[in-house]
Amino acid sequence: MEVIGVDIGGTAIKGAIISSNGDWWEEINVPTRAKNGKNEILSGLMRVISELLNKKFNIVGIGIGSAGNIDHLNGIVDFASENLPGWSGVCLQSVIEETYKLPVVVDNDANMALLGEMWCGSHPHTQSVVMVTLGTGVGGANMFDGKLSRGASFKGGNWGHSNFVPGGRLCNCGRKGCVEAYLSGTAFVERACEQTGRCYRHGADVFNDYQHRVADVVPVVQSYIQELALFIDSLAEGLNPEMFLIGGGVIHAKEIWWEDFQKCLKQNPQPSPLVRSASLGNRAGIYGAASTIIKKVEGKEF
Ligand SMILES: [Zn+2]
Q1: Quick one: how far is CA 286 from the chain centroid?
Q2: Per the CATH hierarchy, to which homologous superfamily does domain 2-114+282-297 belong?
Q3: How far away, in angstroms, is 170 Cα from ligand 1 center?
Q4: For a 10 Å CB count at each end of the chain, is N or C smaller?
Q5: Ligand 1 centre from 271 Cα, in Å?
Q6: Ligand 1 centroid to 270 CA: how many Å?
Q7: CATH assignment of 125-279, given 3.30.420.40, 3.20.20.80, 3.40.50.300, 3.40.50.970?
Q8: Quick one: which of 280, 256, 137, 267 has its CA closest to 207?
Q9: In whole angstroms, how far apart are CA 81 and each of 54, 69, 87, 220, 278?
Q10: How far is 77 from 38, CA to CA, in rounded Å?
């Protein structure tokens, strides 16, 4: 049995054909062109789905992960930020079901990424997991007893705009001191530029200088690692999962900073939580979307 998994992000819409045993077949990526509004996003999504359906596989359903707060029960985008203008309120499931006459499921992209990691990643037997993604923003998802915990209004795991430093750095949401203003990859690069006076474009360049112990970069990265450890420790106290899974673009340079981060976690007087890195990269959301539609087609709870 094959299905289509799709991941709708702020910059790209990525889709692939996946088998029920987790085999990855054809894939297609198109730009989201989000600034042109919801019709352009839908048009990109349908291009991905139509091209994959033309590949002559026996597709039995379509799973879609999207940025934003998603009402997965009704397949509706409950709220999307200005990264996807006009996307709030779109009845995504019914639009795609009516267009393609196939079963469809829709959920938040971070929820799908966590499900994908649990299905095809390196830690398949873990039942309670908190995922935190450190990329352009800070997102995440929660799973307890093997089930996603989406929250009362579909914001569960959306850590980015929790307050971290009262009155602190200005966040792109307009408030001050959000987690995202400290721990996103974007904030990491901004702070490196501010504190060194040099213009870094990518986090990888900052980590590279850290690896070479460039004097003014060392405290930037050490602060980031300490703040991340503090954040994870705070979540661990209240949520108490078996494992934290850290994903997002910052993980690409993990061989440079991960050991220091683990040491930092161990400095806490409490027993340090188990923290692992996500293993599927930007494929996780597509795997998760595929696994969810497979469950729906098989009549299982999802
Ligand atoms: Zn914010």
Answers
A1: 11
A2: ATPase, nucleotide binding domain (3.30.420.40)
A3: 8
A4: N
A5: 30
A6: 29
A7: 3.30.420.40
A8: 256
A9: 32, 9, 8, 29, 25
A10: 11
Amino acid in position 201? R
Distance between Cα 139 and ligand 1 center (Å):
11
User: In angstroms, what is the span from residue 173 Cα to ligand 1's centroid?
Assistant: 4
Q: Is the pLDDT of residue 82 over 90?
A: no
Residue ranges of the chain assigned to CATH 3.30.420.40: 2-114+282-297, 125-279
How many angstroms does the Cα of residue 172 sit away from the middle of ligand 1? Answer: 6
| Contacting residues for 29 by C-beta, under 8 A, at least 6 apart | 12, 13, 14, 15, 48
Q: Which amino acid is at 183?
A: L
Whole-number Å distance, alpha carbon 177 to ligand 1 midpoint, is 7
Distance 135 CA to ligand 1 centre (A): 14
The number of residues in the chain equals: 302
- Assembly ipTM: 0.99
Q: Which residues surround the ion ligand 1 when the cut-off is CB under 5 Å?
A: 161, 171, 173, 175, 178
Separation between Cα atoms, residue 301 and residue 234, nearest integer Å: 32
Q: For residues 103 and 4, give the distance between their C-alpha atoms in angstroms, rounded to a whole number.
A: 11
Residue 241 pLDDT exceeds 90: yes
pLDDT band for position 270 (50/70/90)?
Answer: confident
Residue 29 has which token pair?
Answer: 């990526």
Cα 123 to ligand 1 centroid, rounded to whole Å: 31
Query: Ligand 1 centre and the CA of 137: distance in Å?
Result: 9
pLDDT for position 271: 78
Q: How confident is the model at residue 76 (pLDDT cuts 50, 70, 90)?
A: very high
